[in-house]
Amino acid sequence: MMSNILVCDDERDIVSALRIYLTAEGYQVFEAYTGSEALAILEKEDIQLVLMDIMMPGMDGITAISRLRQESNIPVILLTAKGEDTDKVLGLNIGADDYVVKPFNPVELLARVKAQLRRYVNLGGMMKKQADESVLCVGGIQLDDAAKQVTLDGVPVSLTPTEYDILHFLMKNPGKVFSSTQIYHEVWQNPAYGAENTVAVHIRHLREKLEINPAEPRYLKVVWGQGYKLEGGTAHA
Amino acid sequence: MPDMRSNTAIKALFAVLFSLLVTGCILSLVGIDFIRSFGGYEHNYDSYQQTERYQSYLQTNGFTAQIEFENAVFDIINPIRYLLPWLCSLSALIAVAVLVYLLYAAGHRPGQSGIVLSTLDRMPLELFILLVAIPFILCIAFGLDLSYYVEPFIYFCLSLPLLIICTLLALLFLLGITVRLKAGGWWRYTLLYLICRTVFRFLRKTIGGLGRGIRNAIGALPSLWKLIAGFSTFTLVNSLLLMAMGGTTPGMVLFWLPLTALVFAWLCHIVLMADRLKLGAERLANGELDAQIDTTHMHGELLQHAENLNNIGHGLARAVEARIKSERMKTELITNVSHDIKTPLTSIINYVDLLKKEDIEDERVCSYIEVLDRQSRRLKKLTEDVLEASKASTGNMAVELARTEVAEMLNQVAGEYAERFADAQLHPVIDISDAEGSVIMADGRLLWRVFDNLLNNICKYSQPETRVYFSVRHSESEVMIAMKNISRDVLNISADELIERFVRGDSARSSEGSGLGLSIAQSLTELQGGRFELFVDGDLFKAVLSFPRCA
Hints:
The complex is a heterodimer of chains A (237) and B (551).
Chain A: E1 4-8, H1 12-24, E2 28-32, H2 35-44, E3 49-53, H3 61-69, E4 76-80, H4 85-94, E5 98-101, H5 106-129, E6 135-138, E7 141-144, E8 149-152, E9 155-157, H6 161-172, H7 180-188, H8 196-210, E10 220-223, E11 227-230
Parallel strand pairs in A: 1-2, 1-3, 3-4, 4-5
Antiparallel strand pairs in A: 6-7, 7-8, 8-9, 10-11
Helix pairs in contact in A: 2-3, 6-7, 6-8, 7-8
Chain B: H1 2-6, H2 8-37, H3 45-50, H4 52-59, H5 64-77, H6 84-105, H7 119-122, H8 125-146, H9 152-183, H10 191-220, H11 223-245, H12 249-285, H13 300-357, H14 363-394, E1 402-405, H15 406-423, E2 426-431, E3 439-442, H16 444-461, E4 466-474, E5 478-486, H17 495-499, H18 517-527, E6 531-537, E7 540-548
Parallel strand pairs in B: 2-4
Antiparallel strand pairs in B: 1-3, 4-5, 5-7, 6-7
């Protein structure tokens, strides 16, 4: 299915670069250069996803998103030059689903766009599946223990048996922090004698498979000096 | 009225009139007395010749001229003898009226408002009085004396002008005094006042100067000399007192005890003030820059010292404030500039990426694009690092300290870096045998940034096929994390220089990186209350992080 994406940024060069990337992936792109233009297009067209800059002349991105949220719940990804934590929190609180800090990596941006669209389109289906007991679900990650299969935003992910066991353990206890020793003990069923950093290596591989940007994980988070946890939050703010 | 008061002609006229009136009045009085000496108003020559006066004249020979003159006068006055009292009182009345006018007009001059002092009025009062009194007295004396030497008629003719002169002098005196009183501050024009003032001024100047001189001389003495001088004086006075009193009990009570008590109280005062100074200086030293020393009851050098300390506090507070402000502005500037750089940089990175995706046959073009790609990524890293270094070094960053297990942290870090170590052909050796109980308070995310920067350096600059050592040691109060690796190139730079911002080893110049990594790592470590040290020994590069140990 071909999705319509609205790109809104006051930098025309960035908008046209994004158009090139997105059209290459088969999306229909609409362009806006201010917040009010974006809102006008959203009213007229059938848009499935919005890429929105924060700092724009006239109406800024934050205002535009809070207006948009009164009408619709389509996914919104913020594009921002502001990398401060407070800016990220503000953006997510106001109703954005994800954000990308400028200068962004086009590949990462495309991955996030795809993930948001899949979740938006498959949202209903996921709700239905959750009733099944053998299916664990955290954020966009689904683990079907009967089929021994993991999907991320509806796309199957191939994991090694160890990675699968670690993920399974963490998904059973979402939000809880486990140290390497605890994880080793649970998964290997052996006391860990100096083998703790094996866990760290496996977690890193797991993160690379599950996260769009492993350096800023959304689900599988490192609590430095304490351990690891799996969270269903939208982002890592 | 002003016209009337300042008309000189009228005033002169009135003055003459006044003197004539007074003279007339006096003459009338003399006439009345004369008549009375003839035996009252009801008399004649016969009765006159019966008077003692006439008899005495007759007995003293040579007074015939007197008798003749008196008879002649009598002949003139006798017919008007009833008029004389009226004449006297009338002239007196008019004279008083004229005097009142003259006093009222005194001091006014034509064309000038207010009271104007003449030269006469300005001369010292005593001199003025002398000036008026001497001729007055001379006139009177001359007049009285004259009566013994000259014929009565001549005497009468001569005494009349003398009388007029005397009245004029009296008038002048009255007017002069009035003008002085009217002008106010009459005492200023007295000799006594002038003398007193001069003497007073002279005394003040000499004594004041002397006092100041002595005080300055004492003030300039070093404190030790002051103490010696003061103590010697005290001892001297004390011994003299004791000697004078002969050490008797009443003398002790009367002089020695109060003096000693006074000196003791004074010493207590000085010690108390010195304590106050000490406390104030301690607060200043502890960074309480707005601490002010209370200077009430302080004198002399202690006061000076307290004021100096207070000024230091003010100055420091101002300097610190200015510095904080400039640091904040610098951080803001860097933040804003890096935000502004990020937008064009986004376009550059994206279009370079798009170029890479084009089917370009020409290898040269491809290599150019490769350079653009590498350099734009480097620029991106540089902007991020500059921003982070600025925030970390100014402490403009949220730090959330939590209990952190160092062993767990090292495992996690080593896990994160497992592949990069393998790529760089490095063999990590992690020694956490002593890690039991190595718990510190740190912000995990910031601590990870520290390790990330350090390990990144290790992977980039280590000699391949060497070992990298990680160790944790702890003492009672500290946990030390050490990282050691062998440098691939000669370390031609000191550890201190390496931490400096934008400083890199020669070999690192051309490679990727901002030169900020170690500086950021140091700032972040210090933000979390830790210590960051680098040691370079030949090719051995060692980084040690020390944190206070958490119980």
